[in-house]
Write a structure and sequence with these properties.
This protein is mainly alpha-helical. About 80% of the residues lie in helices and about 0% in strands. The chain is built from four helices and no strands. The protein has helices at about 5-15, 20-25, 25-45, 55-80. α1 (about 5-15) crosses α3, α1 (about 5-15) runs antiparallel to α4 (about 55-80) and α3 (about 25-45) crosses α4 (about 55-80).
């Protein structure tokens, strides 16, 4: 398991916590918020919510993170 996978799981956990507001206000929810929100914020600025309710920016953020991680891995493998 690499760092990008761990961060992806953190994003998924943070999104799932949004369904349970009391858990998002817990220590773990606040910690995940501090680690994940700075990454999600630029995506939320450019991708509007669907109907004002459904936020798809975490999905786009996960795809972007995956593509960047795969790109970095392939560049590193070229030099090894």
């Amino acid at each position: 398991m690499n760092l990008s996978q761990i961060y992806q799981y953190m994003i998924i956990a943070y999104v799932l916590l949004s369904w349970l507001p009391s858990l998002r206000e817990s220590f773990i929810g606040e910690l995940l918020g501090k680690l994940v929100e700075p990454y999600l914020a630029p995506f939320r600025r450019f991708i509007p919510s669907i109907g004002g309710v459904i936020d798809i920016s975490p999905i786009v953020a996960l795809f972007a993170l995956r593509f960047v991680a795969l790109g970095l891995i392939s560049v590193i493998n070229m030099f090894v």
